[in-house]
Amino acid sequence: MANSLRLAFLVLFQSLLALSLAHRYPTKCSFDKLVALEPSKRVESEGGFTEYWDSKNDQFQCVGVSALRYSIKPKGLLLPHYINAPRLQYVLQGTGILETVVPGCPETFREQTRHGDQHQKIHATREGDVIVVPTGSAQWIYNTGETHLVIFSVIDSANEDNQLDLKVRKFFLGGKPQEEKGEEGNMFSGLELKTVAESLDIDMGIAGKVQGVDDPRGSIIIVEDELETLSPAVEESGNGNGLDETVCTLRLVHQLAESTDADKYNPRAGFLTALNTPNLPVLQYVQLGVDRGVLYRML
């Protein structure tokens, strides 16, 4: 069932994104039918692994997206990183917390407000959540559960925010990731150690750890002690007003798997639930949409 769910989401995301790509980059469409694909690459880390689908496949080239899947061990931390295009993530398994730092937004966490977390986008997340990550936002993810935290991610590489080409570019802010051939560090690794220390106002020892020169753990590490954060409760899926909100205050996480309002239903085939701008206004900002489909087994 898990494999079917993952593949179904891949097809759904491709189908939805294809509707809005005609005015962007010229894309290659030279296939006759959709084919379920498996990951073509797996990168191991201390705290889990990352799987990549082949973005050069005709289906991905036509739609203009890339896809990857994180599998994070208990107490595993996916190091802070950002990507040059907006993306949608779906939690397939497990529980955790994550932070999304949106450029230009205040970094204060308002713990005691009736509206909850308004600026620093720290969220408790669980199976069935859809996570929206705007272009250029830095993100880290930590597994708080006892099983692997599995997150499937689709990146809209043909989005107009990706101004160079259809290639997805990932930049890490710490550690020594080796996600791609020739990638041997994070964005600080190419700087002089003294420059890093002075810029961040830290000592040389910590600056060396920030650069991750001798760190063999990869992009997902194990946190030996519990990660201490201001941890909000799981957000309720309330509706925003969609008018006076900005990206700094918009919700980025929505629980979709527990929705009881199917938009399309066939008692013999299954049902389809849509997540769109009225129930998650940030989708208008990133120009994406999500459908969750459940197909019944053929008898």
Share of β-strand residues: 25-35%
**Helix-strand makeup class:** alpha+beta
N-to-C CA distance: 16 Å
The biggest sheet, with number of strands, parallel, antiparallel or mixed sense and barrel status, is: 7 strands, antiparallel
Give a topology summary.
Blueprint: H1 2-18, E1 41-45, E2 48-52, H2 58-63, E3 66-72, E4 76-83, E5 87-93, E6 95-101, E7 121-126, E8 129-133, E9 138-143, E10 149-155, E11 170-172, H3 193-200, H4 204-211, E12 220-222, E13 253-255, E14 264-266, E15 270-275, H5 282-286, E16 290-295
Helix pairs in contact: 3-4
Q: Overview of this structure, please?
A:
With 299 residues, the protein is of the alpha+beta class. It has a single domain (2-175, 217-259), classed as Jelly Rolls (Sandwich). Helix content is 15%, strand content 29%. The protein has helices at residues 2-18, 58-63, 193-200, 204-211, 282-286, and strands spanning 41-45, 48-52, 66-72, 76-83, 87-93, 95-101, 121-126, 129-133, 138-143, 149-155, 170-172, 220-222, 253-255, 264-266, 270-275, 290-295. Strands 1-2-3-10-5-8-13 form a seven-stranded antiparallel beta sheet. Strands 4, 6, 7, 9, 11 and 12 form a six-stranded antiparallel beta sheet that branches. Helix 3 crosses helix 4 (204-211). The radius of gyration is 19 Å and the shape is globular. The two termini are 16 Å apart.
Quickly list its features:
single chain; 299 residues; alpha+beta; Jelly Rolls; 7-stranded antiparallel β-sheet; 6-stranded antiparallel β-sheet; 16 strands; disordered N terminus
